[in-house]
Automatic annotation (TrEMBL):
Enzyme Commission (EC) number: 3.4.19.12
Name of the protein: Ubiquitin carboxyl-terminal hydrolase 25
Signal peptide, first to last residue: 1-21
A Gene Ontology molecular function term of the record: cysteine-type deubiquitinase activity
Coiled-coil annotated residue ranges, if any: none
Amino acid sequence: GSVINTLLMIFLLQQHQQTLLNQLREVTGTTDVQLLQQALQVSNGDLGEAVAFLTEKNAKVPQQDETTYYQTSQVASDRYISVGSQADTNVIDLTGDDKDDLQRAIALSLEESNRAFRETGITDEEQAISRVLEASIAENKASLKRTHTEVWSDSPNPHDRKRIDNCPVGLKNVGNTCWFSAVIQSLFNLLEFQRLVLNYSPPARVHDLPRNQKEHRNLPFMQELRNLFSLMVGSKRKYVDPSRAVEILKDAFKSSESQQQDVSEFTHKLLDWLEDAFQMKAEEDREGEKPKNPMVELFYGRFLAVGVHEGKKFENTEMFGQYPLQVNGFKDLHECLEAAMIEGEIESLHSAENSARSGQEHWFTELPPVLTFELSRFEFNQALGRPEKIHNKLEFPSMLYMDRYMDRNREITRIKREEIRRLKEHLTLLQQRLERYLSYGSGPKRFPLADVLQYAMEFASSKPVCTSPVEDIDTSAPPGLCHSSGLASGPATAPSAAQQQRVPIHKPFTQSRLPPDLPMHPAPRHITEEELRVLEGCLHRWRSEVENDTRDLQGSITRIHRTIELMYSDKSMMQVPYRLHAVLVHEGQANAGHYWAYIYDPHQRCWMKYNDISVTKSSWEELVRDSFGGYRNASAYCLMYINDKKPFLTEEEFDKETGQILSGMDKLPPDLKQYVKEDNEQFDKEIEEWDIMQARKAQQEKLALATAQDPEYMEQPSPTNDSKHLQEDTERAISRAAAEQEERSPEALLNAAIKMEYGRLLRFAQEDTPVENDYRLQHIIVYFIQNQAPKKILERTLLTQFADRNLAFDERCKSIMNVARAKLDLIKPEEVNMDEYEIWHQDYRNFRETTILMVTGLELFQKTNYVEALMYLIYAYQYNKELLLKGLYRGHDEELLGHYRRECLLKLNEQAAAMFESGEEPEVTTGLGIMNELVVPCIPLLLVHDAVRDLLAVEDMRNRWCSYLGQEMESNLQEKLTDFLPKLLDCSTEIKSFHDPPKLPTYSTLELCERFSRIMAALGRVPTEGR
């Protein structure tokens, strides 16, 4: 037993060192294993110091040729978690028969590991990997202290946060924790993993004091993960807060640095902690047999490393978890896997010769139910001294057959690989031959040979059409003149010798003319019918031959491609199917970005997008666009496949007594049921308190309306400019009615005046006017008519106008006002629905408020005061959109408002970017403040409706800031940029808490109409493309 434990300890130590080698190589781009090991020795396992050592060394020493270095003890590729290695001076050969070497290795490993464990209670592996995570955790801890917390805060209305039916629950981003959300959601939706976590019970001895720091940390984390999973199962909330689980992660690793690490490091650590927690439980529950760890059984597999090192063959079994794959230089997942499974010169593996070459193959002997591939999309740019992201396109299938990589298929796979290699060689030759046909010629410009022959045939068969340019220009010239010499000679007789020797007269015009017999288009000068017939026959025959050869080559190439594609499609090589379960996506650059996940729901048979608090239905097409790479800055960095022959991984659990599927709260053990029940009760109470508060508010508003005078735009308590305008219209209608009406009774005059006023307003409503003259602003009745308000609403509104107390300046108006008031009092509740009446008037108030917001925002925009203009334009657009939902004439031009909202954000983005570029501390802080407080909260408003122009504007803003990642800048600016970018790149369309609406200025109807007319006329002078 002690020997097994000792060997296990060796494995863990070597596994840790190999993991560090992998990470160091990926970050720095250095492939020399000796150099990497030297860096780790010098830095004492500190990854940051090792990177600095290598960077400094590379700057001083010219880059050496890439060499492949293998130690006999390190038989696996340095890409994988494998049996680790000593420095080259302490190589211990574990593959030979020397028992002393084995004993020496055991003693050395035990001495080192026991010393570390005695001092800290944590193994070397834990200490070393924790250093890698420190910077990422520190970044997340720092993000909780941000001053601009409004970006991540909750909506005050709990109904906005209420879960709809059984929609999956999202996770709140509590400060650059989108990486946490993406990984946790992928694992949570593995129902077998979910069951393991929910039903986990801590060891009985946990009630005693924890024995070491590891238990002190892992067990509380396990409990918080159980709590989080239980809320994700049974919560009434749309999304839940993972802060307590995240805090344990953050508190475990502390660093002063602030940078975002690859999320795969977090996944490694998460699974390690879970493995440790389950191991403690397994050891307690075992009864004389070796304990089984469900985390190991679920996520870990084994492969066989078969190879030759300097002519010496070796074979060794290794364990692996997440399987790293290089992306650069490959077009699909199978190419990545093929390259990862074969390393170095492997011909000697299959040859009888005693070659000194070194190489190895990897063959899977046991695949885990959950097979995870890490896609290495980050590499260190030695020239720039910083990591860069690889945006290359990499395709991957929704169903992956792993048969070709299995050890049991080793021989047949080798045969097929050799056949593929032979086919690819033949394919290369055929493509070279085809290229000679498709790019024919010896000069810089080349053309398809079939086209060249066709052009030659067309040239040969062309008839020359000779038109003299002189005849075109000088039609009076006598016929028979010879123009080819450029001279005008005498009659067409044979010239004498004296004439031939005569010095020609210089005539610039005629001498510059083209020869008269030059064809209008290229054509043979002299060709006989016989020559043409033979040439056409040859060219036609040659062209047919070339086309046939080209077709044959293309057909052969297509058949070879098809043969290669189908090489592994026979039934015997499709027995190990793995279905794509989750794709974790990163958008951004190497040192900043946003994470989300696509997860397949087998019950709904669709893909779901998990983006922090937002969980939405998606599609394979959207997944491909965002995950394959090559499109914007988004690409997959982790693929999670599950064994398709093990449905228990994603199947729901059944009740053993009833046989019914367990769902919701029924899935939870008693302690978690109580936990979720208490949280749901708290949320119900929050909703109840909100509803009571809103009902009280509504009641207060209703009482205020009931006791108040008529609406302010209908009547004012004192003769303000607004009421004077309305009063003048009313008095004008009364005067016209008195002049035209024979019967002078107040009631008759009132009816006539109302009819005339309605007629006047109806003409306004029906008139086709320019955009700057909006009669809806002049009178509520115009608004009502255009929006087809009920007749009873119109009548009561007009009566209210004539019942204005400000009309009582003479007896006639006073009597009409009294009649109007009496009529209003006589209207029965069943005749006019007062709730509907109030709704129509409230809609008009909203229309006026929207107009004021729009006018104020556009005026500020014209004055280039974009900071103040933004909130007016944002709220004008939102209120206007709500109005337009009720009808086309309820609001203003949505495109115009959308344009200026978008332009204002772009202008602010430009201003903030310019401030950031200045590098001056006050300017940088102000610029980032503009982005955090104004621009970033508004981005979801542009994303939510998928409008093309809005999406392009967001893309422009993001690209502007992402472009800084490739530039040299001060470290403090780099930190600020790294802190800010995840917010900007957040793709969530969830509308988070927002600024309060700006205070509205008070405008009379006349003033509002004038300002509206003025600003709309000014906008009308902007060219269409400018708007």
